C-alpha cells in the first residue's frame, strides 16, 4: 500500500473497509450506551446530569489523546501508535464495565477515549499519506459511509443489550469489537509513513508544528467549520436521550430508530458528496453543508421554543442538521490536511483536539443548562451552526494545490529526516 499508483481497485476497497471498521470504534463507544444513560443513572443512584458528564468526559479525553498521539504518529509511524492504542482501548473499555459510581465511570471513559484517540488520529493521516487532496476526500467519504453502520445500529443494539444483559453488557460488547479491530489492524494494514518522512519529536519542533496549524487561516477556517458543527452534534447526542426518552416518552429500545434516521440522512449526504467531488470545489460543498446545518439548527430552536410540531418538530430539523456531516466532515478534513502533507498526524490531531474539545464543552453545557425542555439542546445546536458558518467564512476563496501523496514516487517537497 505504499505506492498509490500501483494500488488496485480491490486493494483500495479493502483498505476503505478495514479503515471504516476501525473508525467505527469512535461512534460505537459513544452511541452504544446512549439508550442506557437513564438506566445507568438509576443503577448507580446518580443524577442523569452526572451520567451525561461521562459523554463530555469521553470527548475531552479524546481531544487530549489526539494531542499526544498525533505527533507520535508523525514520529514513529501510524501502526506503532494505532496497535498499542487498540490494546489499551480494550482494557479501559472492560474497566468501564465494572465501575459503580459516576466519578469512576468518568475516569474510565477518559482513559478509554485517550486510547481510542490513538486509533482515530492515525486513520485520516494514513489516508493523507497515500492519496492527494480530492482522492483523500473521496476515500474519507467512503470510510465515513462504512462507519455510518456503527451509529445506525449502535443505539438499536444498545437498547436490546440493555434489556438482555443490563448496561454493563454494552461495554463488554465494545471490548469484543475492539479485539476484532486489533486483529484487523495487525493482519490487514501496512505502515503508510516512510521512514524518511518521519518527524523529529522535540519540544521545539512539536510546538512549531502545532503553531503552524493553528495560525494557518485557511486550515483553521475549515477545521473550525467542522468543529462547531461537531459541537452541535454532541449537544444532540448528550441531550437526546432525555428529550426523546423522558420528555416525549419514547421507550429506550425504540430510541435507536429515531437516532438511526439521522444516520440514514448522513449516509445519503455522504453518497451525494462523493459523487459531487470533482464537479464542484470542496470548499463550496463545505460551505453548503455549514449553511444548511445552521438553517436546520435555527428551525429546531423555533420548534423547541414554540412547541410547534411536537416530536416531529424536533426530529426532522435534527435529521437535517446531522445529515450535513456528509458534507462537512470529509471536505473539511481533506482541505485542512492538504496544507500539511508532512505533518498530517499533527494537523489531524490539532483538528481533533478542537473538534472534540468543542464537542465536549457543548455536551457538558447540555447537562448544565438542562431545564426539562428541548430548548437548551436546540439553542446549542443553532448557535454551533451559526459559528460553523462564520468559521468557514475565514477561508479565502483561492485554489489550493492538489498535493501529491507523501509516499508517492514523485514528491512535491523535500523529505524530512527523522531524528
From TrEMBL:
Cellular compartments annotated: Cell inner membrane; Cell membrane
Top-level taxon: Bacteria
Transmembrane feature ranges: 53-72, 79-99, 105-127, 139-158, 170-189, 227-248, 254-273, 285-305, 311-328, 375-395
One Pfam short name: MFS_1
Keyword Membrane: yes
Membrane topology: Multi-pass membrane protein
InterPro entries: Efflux_drug-R_Bcr/CmlA (IPR004812), MFS (IPR011701), MFS_dom (IPR020846), MFS_trans_sf (IPR036259)
Domain Major facilitator superfamily (MFS) profile span(s) in chain numbering: 15-400
Protein name listed in UniProt: Bcr/CflA family efflux transporter
UniProt organism field: Kistimonas scapharcae
Chief location of this protein within or outside the cell: membrane
Entry-linked NCBIfam families: efflux_Bcr_CflA, PRK11102.1
Family of the protein in this entry: Belongs to the major facilitator superfamily. Bcr/CmlA family.
SUPFAM superfamilies: MFS general substrate transporter
Keyword line: Cell inner membrane, Cell membrane, Membrane, Transmembrane, Transmembrane helix, Transport
Amino acid at each position: 500500500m505504499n505506492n498509490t499508483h500501483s494500488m488496485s481497485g480491490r486493494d483500495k476497497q479493502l483498505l476503505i473497509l478495514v479503515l471504516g471498521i476501525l473508525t467505527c470504534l469512535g461512534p460505537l463507544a459513544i452511541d452504544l450506551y446512549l439508550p442506557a444513560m437513564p438506566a445507568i443513572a438509576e443503577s448507580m443512584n446518580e443524577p442523569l446530569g452526572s451520567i451525561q458528564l461521562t459523554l463530555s468526559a469521553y470527548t475531552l479525553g479524546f481531544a487530549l489523546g489526539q494531542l499526544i498521539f498525533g505527533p507520535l504518529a508523525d514520529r514513529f509511524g501510524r501502526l506503532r501508535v494505532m496497535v498499542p492504542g487498540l490494546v489499551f482501548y480494550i482494557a479501559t473499555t472492560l474497566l468501564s464495565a465494572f465501575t459503580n459510581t459516576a466519578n469512576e465511570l468518568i475516569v474510565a471513559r477518559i482513559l478509554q477515549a485517550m486510547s481510542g484517540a490513538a486509533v482515530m488520529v492515525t486513520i485520516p493521516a494514513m489516508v493523507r499519506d497515500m492519496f492527494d487532496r480530492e482522492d483523500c476526500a473521496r476515500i474519507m467519504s467512503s470510510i465515513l459511509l462504512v462507519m455510518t453502520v456503527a451509529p445506525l445500529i449502535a443505539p438499536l443494539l444498545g437498547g436490546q443489550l440493555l434489556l438482555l444483559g443490563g448496561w454493563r453488557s454494552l461495554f463488554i460488547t465494545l471490548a469484543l469489537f475492539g479485539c476484532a479491530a486489533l486483529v484487523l489492524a495487525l493482519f490487514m494494514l501496512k505502515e503508510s509513513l516512510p521512514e524518511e518522512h518521519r518527524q523529529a519529536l522535540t519540544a521545539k519542533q512539536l510546538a512549531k508544528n502545532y503553531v503552524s496549524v493553528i495560525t494557518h487561516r485557511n486550515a483553521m477556517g475549515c477545521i473550525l467549520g467542522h468543529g462547531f458543527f461537531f459541537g452541535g452534534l454532541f449537544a444532540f447526542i448528550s441531550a437526546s436521550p432525555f428529550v426523546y426518552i423522558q420528555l416525549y416518552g419514547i421507550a429506550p429500545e425504540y430510541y435507536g430508530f429515531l437516532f438511526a434516521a439521522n444516520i440514514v440522512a448522513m449516509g445519503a449526504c455522504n453518497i451525494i458528496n462523493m459523487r459531487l467531488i470533482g464537479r464542484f470545489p470542496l470548499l463550496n460543498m463545505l460551505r453548503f453543508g455549514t449553511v444548511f446545518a445552521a438553517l436546520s439548527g435555527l428551525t429546531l430552536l423555533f420548534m423547541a421554543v414554540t412547541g410547534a410540531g411536537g416530536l416531529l418538530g424536533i426530529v426532522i430539523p435534527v435529521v437535517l442538521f446531522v445529515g450535513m456531516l456528509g458534507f462537512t466532515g470529509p471536505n473539511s478534513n481533506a482541505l485542512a490536511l492538504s496544507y500539511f502533507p508532512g505533518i498530517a498526524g499533527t494537523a489531524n490531531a490539532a483538528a481533533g483536539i478542537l473538534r472534540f474539545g468543542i464537542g465536549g464543552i457543548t455536551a457538558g453545557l447540555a447537562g448544565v443548562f438542562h431545564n426539562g425542555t428541548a430548548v437548551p439542546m436546540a439553542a446549542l445546536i443553532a448557535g454551533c451552526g451559526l459559528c460553523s458558518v462564520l468559521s468557514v467564512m475565514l477561508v479565502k476563496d483561492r485554489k489550493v494545490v492538489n498535493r501529491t501523496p507523501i509516499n508517492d514516487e514523485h514528491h512535491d517537497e523535500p523529505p524530512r529526516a527523522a531524528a
